[in-house]
Amino acid sequence: MFFQLSTKKEKLITLLLAFWIIALAIILTTFLSPILYNQQVNAFHLPELVNMPSTQIKENYTNIIHYLSLLTHTSMQVSSKLITSEATRIHFADVKKVLEVIQIYFLLSTFLLIPLIHTTLKEKRHMFLKTTPIVLIVIIGIVGSFMAINFDGAFTLMHQLIFRNNYWLIDPRIDPIISIFPETFFLELGIILLGLIALMIVLMIVLDKYLKKYYLEKEK
């Protein structure tokens, strides 16, 4: 019903905005993750797992996140104790490429969305504030259900879909770096990611109701 009522421009805004929000949530979750990580290094008993001081583990994790930035053009600065194989370095380079695509999409879609949303609101149309939450609810509903039912399966499927090789299957005996990324921590990041998207959905619903009330009062 909502999509039948919306214009082609609003449909375009819906798709761009839905994936813009997902990209924003991924970027925020990734680059703010050291805050959460640094608080849990000892709780996960990581110093014992990799035989490394917690301060050094935190530094390596921060360096990895810095490496994933679109603005970083240097090689990844990680202790040789954590990575010994070329395959694992290639995997992190692959992760960087994926995140760079997400960051580029976020920037480009921002420049596209600003004029599109501006002109649509000037026309007193805001159906995209109804349709975008629907698209996002379907997406996070599917992903969230899969994570809740079988997180290991969801995690594996995600890697199989994104990467064209098996370098993500890291052997901790060869490359202990995988041990500083506990599965529980990934689960926490997944929950935060979905939470950020849910927050944006709520904000759009509130904004839609506000605009509807605003336009009605303006017509009186």
From TrEMBL:
Membrane spanning residue stretches: 12-37, 102-121, 133-151, 185-207
Superkingdom, natural source: Bacteria
Coiled coil (UniProt feature): none
Keywords: Membrane, Transmembrane, Transmembrane helix
Entry protein name: Integral membrane protein TIGR01906
UniProt organism field: Sharpea azabuensis
